[in-house]
Design a protein that fits this description.
Blueprint (H helix, E strand, L loop, with lengths): L2 H20 L7 H9 L20 E4 L2 E3 L2 H11 L6 E5 L5 H9 L2 E6 L2 H13 L5 E5 L14 E4 L8 H5 L7 E6 L5 E9 L2 E10 L11
Helix pairs in contact: 1-2
Length: 219
């Protein structure tokens, strides 16, 4: 298959994913929809899984991690109500797919990843696609990235038993938002946390299933 035919095939699959699995299931934020339509998700998955890149389910990316279901990524992005001027922290960069979507929607993105293999891979793909407003750093995501705090928004792509205090402390005190899966594997809830005058207000956004947020750095 020629490169142009392959690109066209992926573009058609991407359009079908956005129309059916994202817009068709209730996502209405046009900036999120257009970002997902532009971004080539197949570039963020291993070659063996590229044929499934636009199906609405997670896929393995190595190191025991996955690229999240497109619809779930869209829910999280829409909940954050991202603005073009926002500075965002992503916890758990993984493949870099959500990182690149955040780069489409915000002014500056800091993405932290504990696996050096995944961090290097995410940085490579994001850079190859021309995003120059992203810093991928290796570190313990449960501790956030204090060097560039405060953040207008934080997106956490792994589940935790309780919201880590360092992440709360790195949100902007008035207007900061965080979306995070909380709870054990069998009963996680996606929580949207909004900071209002230094206090946090929690809204439940539905059941979800994510890999666990693990403290520490590999290697």
């Amino acid at each position: 298959m020629s490169a142009s035919v392959e690109a066209g095939s992926f573009a058609n699959l991407r359009q079908r994913m956005v129309d059916g699995d994202v817009r068709g299931r209730g996502i209405r934020d046009e900036r999120v929809l257009q970002a997902m339509l532009r971004l080539p998700r197949h570039e963020f998955v291993p070659e063996a899984y590229r044929a499934q890149a636009y199906e609405d389910h997670p896929l393995p990316i190595g190191e025991g991690q996955t690229i999240s279901q497109p619809f779930m990524v869209a829910i999280m992005l829409q909940a954050l109500s991202l603005q073009p001027t926002d500075t965002v922290l992503e916890v758990g960069a993984g493949s870099g797919y959500a990182t690149a979507l955040l780069a489409e929607l915000a002014a500056r993105v800091f993405a932290i990843e504990r696996s050096p293999v995944l961090a290097a891979g995410a940085a490579r793909v994001v850079s190859s696609l021309g995003y120059d407003n992203v810093n991928v750093v290796m570190g313990d995501g449960s501790q956030g990235f204090a060097a560039s705090a405060p953040y207008d928004a934080i997106l956490v792509s792994a589940a935790t038993a309780a919201v880590p205090e360092p992440l709360l402390s790195q949100l902007r005190k008035d207007g900061g938002r965080m979306i995070i899966p909380v709870g054990p594997a069998e009963s996680q809830q996606l929580q949207l946390i909004r900071m209002q005058a230094g206090r946090h207000v929690v809204t439940l956004c539905g059941a979800c299933r994510f890999v666990p947020l693990v403290a520490g750095v590999i290697g």
